[in-house]
Amino acid sequence: MEVTISYMEGMSPNPDNEAIIMKVCGEVSRVYGLGNEEELSVLLCDNAYIHKLNKEYRQIDRPTDVLSFALNEGEDNGELESHLLGDLIISLERTAEQAEEYGHPFERELAYLTVHGCLHILGYDHMTEEDKKEMRTEEEFVLGNLGYVREDAPYNE
What we know:
By secondary structure, the chain is of the alpha/beta class. The chain has helices at residues 15-31, 47-58, 78-82, 92-102, 106-121, 129-145; strands at residues 2-7, 39-45, 66-70, 84-91.
């Protein structure tokens, strides 16, 4: 999978964050059989920017951690466009807040949010308890493959 990482204006690139995102996307690609031709865009931002997007696209007036915009949701856009998976927007500010809240490293939270967003792009959701359980199992599987494990598994609640 080809992954393009960009930053909102005013943010400096961080190779460590980029390495985590690339590692997670590579594992998602391997586990779910995605090819080299699939494309995913990742934008890293702050809480103010993701708050604005969350309000505009989801009518939720607060910052969130990750937003996923699948480009091929239920549509047949032709072969060329079918390789464009979608866009992830991750708030690094919210990532840090949640890492502290859950008591684990920033890197683990960034990995979790990346896999969570990727699974949304691939069609997973957590609207029902059954869907939530399936998605959490998939998240923990991918994270476990990469060594991002937690004994108390807070996402399996």
